[in-house]
Amino acid sequence: MQTTFAQLGLPQPLVRALAAAGIDEPFPVQAATIPDVLAGRDVSGMAPTGSGKTLAFGLPLLARVERAGRLRPRALVLAPTRELAEQIKKELAPLAKAGGRSVIAVYGGVSYGPQKGGLRKGVDVLVATPGRLEDLIEQGAADLSQVDIVVIDEADRMADMGFLPAVRRILDQTSRRRQTLLFSATLDGDVAVLSRDYQRDPVRHETGTVEPETIDARHHFWLVQHHDRVEHTADVVTASGRTIVFTRTRHGADRLAKQLCRVGVDAVAMHGGRTQNQRDRALRAFSSGRAQALVATDVAARGIHVDAVDAVIHFDPAGDSKDYLHRSGRTARAGATGTVVSMVTGSQQRAVRRMQKDLDLRAPIEAPRLDTLHGGGEHIAAPAAQRPRQAPAPARPAARSPRSSKPQGDQTPSVYVANLPWDTTSDDLERLFSRHGDVSTATVITNGSGRSKGFGFVDMPHQAAEAAITALHGSTLEGRDLTVRFAKPRRHN
Question: What domains sit in the chain, N to C, each tagged with a CATH number?
Answer without folding.
Answer: 12-206 (3.40.50.300), 212-381 (3.40.50.300), 414-486 (3.30.70.330)
